[in-house]
């Protein structure tokens, strides 16, 4: 099985989203610093004018509060981009295609399984022995059929794979 890697485009989208989130957060949080510096010492009350002659002339207070929604929008867009970059279009739900979603998630599921395997190996646990798994040849054929049927119900194998494996079990039993 060829190991798939996350594409450079997805990495770029993820990091772009991360940058947008950071800039959006800093923009949003700067509102509080600007507001308190305006209130407690920077601008006298005579120069705070909230005339609305278009967006260009909002005055100091207006421009402070315009940054808050801009920062929030940047954080939301950044979060969406990070999700799409990490999970792919199908994995993040933008495209509804289960096969493509599995393909998009493949590097992450492989990594998660690898981390679990590493932890189990590090702990010196033999899962087959600990969980009491039997060799499939020791298992009665009806139990093999039940387990195979459950795999099909859970969507782990498709109908064709089910029929092939069922035929093998019945021929052995």
Explain this structure.
The protein is an all-alpha fold and 173 residues long. The chain folds into two domains: 1-110, no CATH class; 135-173, no CATH class. Helix content is 72%, strand content 0%. It has helices spanning 8-42, 59-91, 98-123, 127-130, 141-153, 159-172. Helix 1 (8-42) runs antiparallel to helix 2, helix 2 (59-91) crosses helix 3 (98-123) and helix 5 (141-153) runs antiparallel to helix 6 (159-172).
Radius of gyration: 29 Å
N-to-C CA distance: 31 Å
- Topology order in helix (H) and strand (E) letters: HHHHHH
Mean residue pLDDT: 76
Query: Quick one: overall form?
Result: elongated
According to DSSP, the number of beta strands is 0
Helix content: over 70%
Please describe the biggest sheet, giving its number of strands, its sense, and whether it closes into a barrel. none
Query: Which ranges are low-confidence, i.e. pLDDT below 50, for 5 or more consecutive residues?
Result: 44-55
SS element count, helices: 6
Q: β content, as a range?
A: under 5%
Structural class: mainly alpha
- Structural domain count: 2
What is this structure's SSE topology?
Layout: H1 8-42, H2 59-91, H3 98-123, H4 127-130, H5 141-153, H6 159-172
Question: What would you say about this model in short?
Answer:
The protein has 173 residues and is mostly helical. Helix content is 72%, strand content 0%. The protein folds into 2 domains: 1-110, no CATH class; 135-173, no CATH class.
Key words describing this protein structure:
173 residues; mainly alpha; 2 domains; 0% strand
């Amino acid at each position: 099985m060829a190991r798939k890697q996350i594409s450079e485009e997805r990495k770029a989208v993820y990091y772009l989203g991360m940058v947008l989130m950071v800039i959006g957060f800093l923009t949003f949080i700067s509102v509080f610093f600007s507001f308190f510096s305006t209130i407690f010492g920077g601008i006298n009350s005579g120069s705070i004018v909230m005339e609305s002659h278009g967006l260009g002339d909002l005055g100091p207070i207006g421009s402070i509060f315009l940054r808050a929604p801009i920062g929030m929008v940047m954080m939301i867009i950044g979060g969406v981009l990070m999700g799409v970059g990490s999970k792919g279009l199908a994995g993040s739900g933008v495209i509804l295609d289960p096969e493509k979603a599995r393909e998009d998630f493949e590097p992450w599921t492989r990594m998660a399984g690898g981390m679990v395997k590493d932890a189990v190996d590090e702990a010196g646990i033999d899962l087959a022995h600990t969980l009491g798994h039997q060799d499939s040849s020791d298992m009665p054929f009806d139990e093999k059929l039940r387990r195979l049927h459950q795999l099909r119900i859970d969507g782990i194998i498709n109908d064709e794979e089910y029929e092939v494996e069922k035929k093998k079990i019945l021929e052995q039993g």
